[in-house]
């Protein structure tokens, strides 16, 4: 365990992805390093989700390379995990949903249930452990999805608009879990449309437009003095009351 | 209309009489059809799910073929199994022709494409939602297929019922490979065909009513089971 190279940095080298005749990600070169929380911002269709899927290995780039510093899995356990915009709940209990991910990661049965219980506890769902996952509310399902990912102890957690469909209080609950994951030492990469969320949860911003990285800056710098016209327009569009 | 009222009287008296002969026919029908459905499900459910999650050359023709085989004519299946099991056939040495085993084999072959095709469709529809998650968690094709099967288990009740319906209703295959031997291979459908050809229409209709009643009862039980499970597990 000690002599395994750290997973990060993740280097994207001239990565492109095309589907259905459309260039969704266009020659992106980007280094994602451990530590600061990275927020992917950009208008719809900018290629944020595709980029995240390329990082996670759900999609293979049409050209270019996605390369982690260290091996992507140790003993069958993947070192990076992903939480999707719409949580997919298996038709079983909340606890079993978390335990399922641990089983695929090769965790022995007894340790699995214990770790799953702990993960539920960390996201505040311990009291719903025995409930069928499908009957939980949207916010609870997303917290469960976070618990399922977090239980795997990933070094990198990729989040694709995890609060897109949630009300403010559910959003707040999710944000505090993400903050806790960060404080526990996991690198966070988060897609959001919400500049407030970017401000609250982000340290650095990668701004995408038309499948390309337009800007890569600290959150403060990006929000207050964006370098590109596209980013400025995006920020103004997101804050129409200003 | 006379035939129908006579038929209901015949059915009533058959049931009320508790005729052991009739009971034997009913039980054999259930035994043959349920065995066939069990065999077809054990083989077909995993195959259907595997077909849903895998991608290989020739997959699309295979999907079309299994869909088409749902319409297999029972008499043709009966004939093929007859040729295989007959004394001169490749499996003749087992002496299975004109036994309930032969009927189970024929009905299994009839039901199998239905189970595979309907499972494949249900699993593939679910796969759209599950693919990213299962890939993300590192599930391989076999694990994914097993997980899908478990998660769509309530839909699969209908799949298995469709198979049972097919088996319980067909007459062509069991007639050819079973031979409708009284007390040995006579089942509901072959008995109905026989009574019809003998001209005893009320008895034939009465048997038909009982057959329909059994099929409805099996479906009602499955429906209630499914409803209770859905309420429980969401």
State the fourth-level CATH superfamily of the domain at 10-88 and 155-238 in chain A.
Answer: P-loop containing nucleotide triphosphate hydrolases
Question: Structural class, judged by helices and strands of chain B?
Answer: mainly alpha
Summed up, the helix count of chain B is 10
Helix- and strand-based class of chain A?
alpha/beta
What does the model show?
The complex is a heterodimer of chains A (242) and B (234). Chain A has eight helices and eleven strands. Chain A is an alpha/beta fold and 242 residues long. A six-stranded mixed beta sheet of chain A has the order 7-8-9-3-10-11, sandwiched between helices. In chain A, helix 2 (94-104) packs across helix 3 (109-122) and helix 3 crosses helix 4. Chain B has 234 residues and is mainly alpha-helical. Chain B is built from ten helices and no strands. Chain B has one domain (30-199): Orthogonal Bundle (MetI-like fold). The longest helix of chain B has 37 residues, at 100-136. Chain B has helices spanning 2-17, 20-53, 59-69, 74-85, 100-136, 141-151, 153-169, 172-178, 188-198, 201-233.
Which helices and strands occur, and which strands form pairs?
The complex is a heterodimer of chains A (242) and B (234).
Chain A: E1 10-19, E2 22-32, E3 38-41, H1 48-56, E4 63-68, E5 73-74, E6 77-78, E7 80-83, H2 94-104, H3 109-122, H4 138-150, E8 156-160, H5 168-183, E9 187-191, H6 195-201, E10 204-209, E11 212-218, H7 219-224, H8 229-238
Chain B: H1 2-17, H2 20-53, H3 59-69, H4 74-85, H5 100-136, H6 141-151, H7 153-169, H8 172-178, H9 188-198, H10 201-233
Helix pairs in contact in B: 1-10, 2-5, 2-6, 2-7, 3-5, 4-5, 4-8, 5-6, 5-7, 5-8, 7-10, 9-10
Give a concise summary:
With 242 residues, chain A is an alpha/beta fold. In chain A, 36% of the residues lie in helices and 26% in strands. The longest helix of chain A has 16 residues, at 168-183.
Features:
heterodimer, A: 242 residues, alpha/beta, Rossmann fold, 3-stranded antiparallel sheet, 26% strand, B: 234 residues, mainly alpha, MetI-like fold, 10 helices
